[in-house]
């Protein structure tokens, strides 16, 4: 079988040739995996072979070692582990040889595959000489630039794939030495220097002890800062990316270098190419994030003498703020038309907002002169920048500091809504929205919005929304205007809700401190009145999700009073009052059942409303509430509920934020209807398994995607826990076929450092639920998935709820393993 010809045929424009070739490759792989992998590595390493066959050989080889789906990834890992050591050795030799190839694609692919093999073997204490061999390429006299570049790439990828604890400190030291040397000005090849900077970026997590050593830290920082002034744009950009990562990871070590870094960032923002300038601004945004986190950690305590909070932003403020304000004047034409645009102006404004949150009142006097100097200039860039600056500092400074400025400037902002430039109007509408969101409080002593100016405000906003209906501003200005109206209304609603909540809490406190013998009669009357009002809430007409939320809030407040009354009366000689009201109370709590047939029509419509995903999301939450309230009485509606939920999960048009709560809802339904959930297992379980597999495709460099991934994980675990608890009993064996995948998924989450505490607790809980439900039938599952020992040991060290849950789960597993 000529592997070269098959690989070429697999890329043929002729579909028939491709199909035959792909079949041959699959057959070779299935019949003799070790030789298949070896043949691919030889093909990749042979400079005499066609670039096309080598490229495909590398791709297939890489995909034979790693996958995004956690279950498949584990399968590929096990397949590699079982390959004969002599064949694995030959494959690795071919990969290392390929780093010196004259073909860039072959070198690049080989560096990636080396890292994939390392990710499997190094944690198993195998391929221990890899780092030494790679470093040998860097120190060999006369080593070519392409070999050095590919080697540095491989080192960077290895650091990306392997956890810091799996490399010895002397290996880390040697890697950092080679990488930093590759970055130095003495290296003549720009390609090598760029690869070295990128490798350092990936290796920073390994450098904790090196940054703790002043001499080593000084050397690393010196080289990084020098590299930030390289003549090549991509190298400067990569160097600033390293500085951003260092700011996040090693904030506590930055103080000696801050003046140098400020000069570098200032020069970059002022005159460098935009990709470099963006990273320079990002450095200061990252410092803000770190210091905001420190302030939240201290939570108002006196941290003036803190050894970890260096107040870099406060110290740099007089120079930093003017630098950021200048970026606001570098807008692009029509940047308001695209919400995804990210340029130096947007970056500077975002950073300015973070600075305001970091230093509070201290920023105001630095920004307001810029606002006043530019707000009336003929150039629209100046007017827009001034408005953007003002809107950016509305969160952070105190209300007392901002209130006079907003009160005096509100009329001007309203006038600016008629500005001839759409970008000025867009930013002004955004700023008004920020004012209403952050500072609008009708219950304050000196409210920004009052009966005198409210008609004008509404008139301007409504007029602006009409003005844009027939113009190109619709996608942006109209959206911002609607947002401003929403926050304006929300302020009044929040005030009303706060007053109502305060009133009920005051009522609760009166009941708590009352003297029962004297007040028993009054409390008895209060109990009747609260029950009457709660009964009336079931007659409230629900026309929107807002109506539903108001109804739920009012019911929660009334139920809170009932709880306080019952607790008070139960601990006294007035228990007879509760006994007399018991029938009424039970009737009240079961009252909701008779409304289900009519209400379900609206609920089902809400679940199907994927275009207005907020409505759909609220409806999913209502399903969970109903399941907890009605328990098995919800069974008649479950077929229709499950059908709609499964369709929602398959609907690509539905906003992704709704899907995690749907998984959790599966658990709520199973808990409510118990073993009756059996009929839904063939449909629900593949959805959970598919979602678990898709988690591997999320971009881990995107914080939003990491948060979303954690939401999905939590939803999946809550679904499994609910299903396991609900189906516990005679039909528990139905869950055995799903146990292996559940444990594989749980292990993948355990290995993922991006999991948050809520996910960790949910993962631990599901281990206990699995053992509790399956009992001795779970022995083999836990016996062949020993990761749980390490996972629970890690969690048992926690003093919080995670530790308590882990202790319970450990008990359940031990109990299951001891049973016969």
Automatic annotation (TrEMBL):
Pfam families per the UniProt record, alphabetical: HEAT_EZ, IBN_N, TPR_IMB1, TPR_IPO5
Cross-referenced SMART domains: IBN_N (SM00913)
A GO term, aspect molecular function: small GTPase binding
Cellular localisation: Cytoplasm; Nucleus
Cytoplasm listed as a keyword: yes
Record GO biological process: protein import into nucleus
Record keywords: Cytoplasm, Nucleus, Protein transport, Repeat, Transport
Cellular component terms per the entry's GO annotation: cytoplasm
Primary site of residence: cytoplasm
Residues annotated as signal peptide: none
UniProt key word Cytoplasm: yes
InterPro entries hit by this protein: ARM-like (IPR011989), ARM-type_fold (IPR016024), IMB1_TNPO1-like_TPR (IPR058584), Importin-beta_N (IPR001494), Importin_beta (IPR040122), TPR_IPO4/5 (IPR057672)
Residue ranges of every copy of the Importin N-terminal domain listed in the record: 21-101
PANTHER family hit by this protein: IMPORTIN BETA (PTHR10527)
Name by which UniProt lists this protein: Importin N-terminal domain-containing protein
């Amino acid at each position: 079988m000529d592997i070269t010809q098959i690989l070429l045929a697999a890329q043929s424009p002729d579909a028939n040739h491709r199909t035959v070739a792909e079949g041959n490759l699959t057959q070779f792989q299935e019949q003799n995996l070790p030789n298949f992998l070896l043949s691919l590595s030889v093909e990749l390493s042979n400079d005499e072979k066609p670039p096309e066959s080598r490229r495909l050989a590398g791709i297939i080889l890489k995909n034979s070692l790693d996958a995004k789906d956690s279950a498949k990834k584990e399968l590929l890992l096990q397949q590699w582990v079982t390959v004969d050591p002599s064949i694995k050795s030959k494959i690795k030799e071919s990969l290392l040889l390929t780093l010196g190839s004259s073909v860039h694609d072959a070198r690049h692919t080989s560096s990636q595959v080396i890292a994939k093999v390392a990710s499997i073997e190094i944690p198993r204490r195998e391929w221990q000489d890899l780092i030494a061999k790679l470093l040998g390429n860097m120190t060999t006299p006369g080593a070519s630039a392409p070999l050095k570049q590919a080697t540095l790439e491989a080192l960077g990828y290895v650091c990306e794939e392997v956890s810091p604890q799996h490399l010895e400190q002397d290996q880390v030291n040697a890697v950092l030495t080679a990488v930093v040397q590759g970055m130095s000005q003495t290296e003549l090849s720009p390609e090598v220097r760029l690869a070295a900077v990128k490798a350092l970026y990936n290796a920073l997590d390994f450098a904790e002890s090196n940054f703790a050593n002043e001499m080593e830290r000084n050397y690393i920082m010196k080289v990084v800062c020098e590299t930030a002034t390289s003549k090549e744009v991509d190298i400067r950009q990569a160097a600033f990316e390293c500085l951003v990562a260092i700011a996040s990871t090693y904030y506590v070590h930055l103080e000696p270098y801050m003046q140098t870094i400020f000069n570098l960032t200032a020069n970059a923002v002022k005159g460098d190419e935009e990709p470099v300038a963006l990273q320079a601004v990002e450095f200061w945004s990252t410092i803000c994030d770190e210091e905001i986190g420190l302030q939240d950690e201290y939570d108002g305590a006196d941290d003036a003498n803190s050894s970890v909070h260096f107040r870099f932003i406060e110290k740099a403020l007089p120079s930093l703020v003017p630098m950021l304000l200048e970026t606001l004047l570098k807008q692009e034409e029509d940047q308001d038309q695209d919400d995804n645009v990210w340029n130096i102006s947007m970056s500077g404004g975002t950073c300015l907002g973070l600075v305001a949150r970091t230093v509070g009142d201290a920023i105001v006097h630095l920004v307001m002169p810029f606002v006043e100097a530019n707000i009336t200039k003929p150039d629209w860039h100046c007017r827009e920048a001034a408005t953007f600056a003002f809107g950016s500092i509305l969160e952070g400074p105190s209300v007392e500091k901002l209130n006079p400025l907003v009160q005096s400037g509100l009329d001007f902002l309203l006038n600016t809504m008629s500005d001839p430039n759409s970008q000025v109007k867009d930013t002004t509408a955004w700023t008004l929205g920020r004012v209403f969101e952050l500072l609008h409080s009708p219950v304050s002593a000196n409210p920004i919005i009052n009966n005198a100016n409210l008609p004008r405000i509404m008139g301007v906003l409504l007029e602006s929304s009409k003005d844009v209906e027939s113009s190109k501003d619709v996608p942006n200005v109209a959206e911002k205007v609607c947002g401003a109206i929403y926050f304006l209304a929300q302020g009044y609603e929040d005030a009303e809700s706060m007053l109502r909540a305060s009133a009920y809490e005051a009522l609760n406190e009166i009941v708590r401190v009352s003297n029962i013998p004297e007040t028993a009669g009054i409390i008895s009357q209060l109990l009747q009145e609260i029950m009457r009002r709660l009964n009336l809430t079931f007659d409230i007409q629900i026309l929107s999700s807002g109506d539903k939320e108001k109804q739920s809030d009012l019911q929660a407040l009334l139920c809170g009073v009932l709880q306080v009354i019952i607790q008070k009366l139960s601990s006294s000689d007035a228990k007879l009052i509760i006994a007399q009201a018991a029938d009424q109370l039970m009737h009240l709590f079961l009252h909701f059942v008779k409304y289900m047939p009519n209400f379900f029509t609206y609920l089902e419509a809400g679940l199907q409303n994927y275009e207005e995903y907020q409505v759909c999301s609220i409806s999913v939450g209502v399903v969970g509430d109903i399941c907890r309230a009605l328990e098995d009485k919800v069974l008649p509606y479950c077929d229709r509920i499950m059908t709609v939920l499964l369709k929602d999960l398959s609907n690509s048009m539905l906003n992704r934020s709704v899907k995690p709560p749907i998984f959790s809802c599966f658990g709520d339904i199973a808990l409510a209807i118990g073993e009756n959930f059996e009929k839904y297992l063939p449909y629900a379980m593949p959805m959970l398994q598919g979602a678990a597999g898709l988690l591997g495709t999320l971009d881990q460099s995107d914080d939003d995607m990491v948060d979303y991934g954690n939401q999905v994980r939590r939803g999946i675990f809550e679904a499994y826990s609910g299903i396991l608890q609900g189906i516990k009993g005679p039909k528990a064996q139905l869950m055995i076929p799903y146990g292996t995948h559940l444990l594989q998924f749980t292990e993948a989450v355990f290995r993922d450092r991006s999991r948050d505490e809520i996910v960790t607790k949910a993962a631990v809980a599901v281990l206990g639920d699995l053992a509790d439900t399956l009992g001795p039938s779970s022995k083999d599952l836990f016996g062949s998935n020993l990761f749980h020992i390490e996972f629970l040991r890690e969690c048992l060290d926690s003093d919080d709820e995670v530790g308590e849950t882990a202790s319970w789960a450990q008990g359940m597993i031990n109990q299951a393993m001891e049973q016969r």
